């Protein structure tokens, strides 16, 4: 399938310093390279883009993501014997509250305890030697409004720019891997790790 002509995109800011809603991408076709470059530029400007009602399926999600570069492989993170519910797309990580049978993960399970780390601030894939440049999140089903499942984003670029030069120097001298899973999973599930 050949990409369609470039889309006419609009970006509506969601916050004074970062985040925008992007409209005008036709995800039913391969996204044209000019459109990808416009999205890449907008990501650089806004940091976070929201595509509402994108109607992406797994195959189109992977194709769209691949247009931005090399993808990770979730295979090493799937426990032996656990089904990958998004197979054959091992590039997609199943960050879900559903178990292998599509039922809600039980609060007394190891998977539930390990998943609690996702409820705290973290940086996706910060533990990988090749850092993720972009994370593309897609919800298959949203819970009812005000019942949980919200994803929050932080404008770390503006936060850093607003720091004093002394604090920036201190940060530059302190080498630590922010967002490592153990930093968020241990406080969230202290009995597990």
From TrEMBL:
Keyword vocabulary terms for this entry: Dioxygenase, Iron, Metal-binding, Oxidoreductase
Pfam family, one: TauD
Organism: Polyplosphaeria fusca
Name assigned to this protein: Taurine catabolism dioxygenase
InterPro entries attached to this UniProt entry: TauD-like_sf (IPR042098), TauD/TfdA-like (IPR003819), TfdA_dioxygenase (IPR051178)
Transmembrane segments: none
Region listing for Disordered, in residue ranges: 173-193
Ranges of residues in domain TauD/TfdA-like: 11-176
Gene3D superfamilies recorded: Clavaminate synthase-like
GO terms of molecular function: dioxygenase activity; metal ion binding
Family of the protein in this entry: Belongs to the TfdA dioxygenase family.
Lineage of the organism: Eukaryota, Fungi, Dikarya, Ascomycota, Pezizomycotina
């Amino acid at each position: 399938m050949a990409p369609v002509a470039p889309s006419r995109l609009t970006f509506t800011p969601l916050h004074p310093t970062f985040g925008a809603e992007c409209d005008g991408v036709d995800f039913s076709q391969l996204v044209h390279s000019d459109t990808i470059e416009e999205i890449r530029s907008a990501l650089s400007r806004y940091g976070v883009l929201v595509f509402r009602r994108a109607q992406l399926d797994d195959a189109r999600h992977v194709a769209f993501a691949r247009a931005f570069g090399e993808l990770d492989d979730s295979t090493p993170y799937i426990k032996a014997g656990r089904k990958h519910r998004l197979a054959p797309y091992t590039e997609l990580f199943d960050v879900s509250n559903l178990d292998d049978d599509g039922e809600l993960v039980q609060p007394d399970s190891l998977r539930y305890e390990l998943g609690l780390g996702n409820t705290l601030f973290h940086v996706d894939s910060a533990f990988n030697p090749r850092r993720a440049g972009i994370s593309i999140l897609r919800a298959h089903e949203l819970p009812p409004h005000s019942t949980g499942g919200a994803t929050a984003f932080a404008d770390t670029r503006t936060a850093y720019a607003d720091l004093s030069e002394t604090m920036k120097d201190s940060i530059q001298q302190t080498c630590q891997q922010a967002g490592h899973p153990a930093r968020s999973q241990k406080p969230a599930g202290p009995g597990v790790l």
